[in-house]
Hints:
Number of helices: 18
Distance between the termini: 44 Å
Mean pLDDT: 95
Amino acid sequence: MHTDVVTDVLIVGSGPAGASAALALSTYGVPNMVVTRYASLADTPRAHITNQRTMEVLRDLGVEQEALARATPQHLMGNTTFCTSLAGEELGRVRSWGNEPLVQAAHELASPTVMCDIPQHLMEPVLVDAAVARGTVLRYSTVYKSFTQDADGVTVTVEDRVRGDAYTIRAKYLVGADGGRSKVAEDAGLPMGGQMGVAGSINIVFDADLSRYTAHRPATLYWVLAPGATVGGIGAGLVRCVRPWTEWLIVWGYDVSAGAPDLTTEYAESVVRQLVGDDDIPVTVRSSSAWTVNEMYAETYSNGRVFCAGDAVHRHPPSNGLGSNTSIQDSYNLAWKLKLVLDGTADPGLLDTYTAERAPVGRQIVTRANKSIGETAPIFEALDGLTPQTPEQLWANIAARKEPTEAAGKQRARLRDAIAHKVYEFNAHGVDLNQRYASDAIVPDGTPDPGFARDPELYHQPSSRPGAKLPHAWLTSGTRTLSTLDTVGGGRFTLLTGIGGEGWVRAATAHELDIATVVVGPGQEYEDPYGDWARLSEVSDSGVLLVRPDGYVAFRHPAAAANAEELLGEALRRILGRG
């Protein structure tokens, strides 16, 4: 056994959760090390939808523009199409991923960022390269074997797959970001709810120029309703654009009770041909792999000094595109807390708020993703396509919708309604942005929870109430225009106030914690030219918002207070576990 390697935080896994944890920690100056059993970063597209909240995280971590440069832009993502094959009949479309005009306006009002489609094999290098440049130590071909922990840290045994020998790494904290079959989560004994392997799916990555069938209706996803499409999997055949319009990934189901089919090139090509519907287009199959649809989430995200993030603690199908987004946001929540505990600013109890805040989100997205699978069935039902029948009967049912009869009219209406209902998968803006935290790192202000005025899954509702993400509004500073979100983050707490809030600023500067101060108003460093912030802040000019490093409001007071220093100090002691 080699001499111990020593670091503050050891991260197992270099996927979105592990890479973003490393990037955030290195950005905050925390020594960290990443080990991955693989010899390289992801070599297949896997996760890809990247929502506004994740783009806000990447913006704060300084890699937003690198991600956008590698991504398929939002305007090419949004004509989600339902068809019998790419070359076959189109059954309908859903304007998706913020491309419906009213949803697009909501996106622009909600955030300074735009969502995009950046496949995992392009996202991981953005995160990892920046992390390593800022100090992360990365070790490929290094397998996590086991850990033991004590009062002062965690000793992790790893095996070098190149040399074939084992050594130990001593860390103050261990982060398991080792995916849906996480050994770290298993060894930590994290209790899980739900079940694994509820259905079977196959991924087939292939190259083909499909421009003639896709460029006029640009989309990330093309859903194929064909014989066999309801077997296992995610409810229908799926042709996913990796890079317009030549790189693709197909998802096709199989009966999980019978086991995965033999994934020969011939089998993969036959599935591709069925879903594309044009046998004359040259196709090159790059890879194929089987996986299972899971519905599982951890009830607790940590055990002592061991924390898990990403697919290690929430395992679900790709519906709604929530996987890598939730994984990155897990790590962003955890990283600043680790930093403050490691430098002695916060009590270790602050780390208990990681589970309190993120486990409810994990449960919600697992439930939402699996519910979206079920919402595909009504499309087949509208075509009488769920009952056992011959392919010829399905085609006849599809053709019947064109008839000038009352029955066909009702069928068309059912099909339109069923397709339109998929908005809960493809435009769930509230699922992306409405997360509210309740934990000891949030100080309630005594106001009643107003709830949501509209469907909280579909519509984002900004709020400055403690536990909500800071609302976005455009401010100016001299000739610069910047978002309120650009004034916070950077690993620091930020205090926002206005004219008359000088007492809050004095309280912040008097505190031992490094707190950034932002004063908004006429003649101040930041101005509110549109008046949006005055409305969204939900406090008076002399009131205050204290925002955590992750952009969440931790404390709010409606107006100036003679005892501002006492109130702010008490709030910070509570948040940092010092109270």
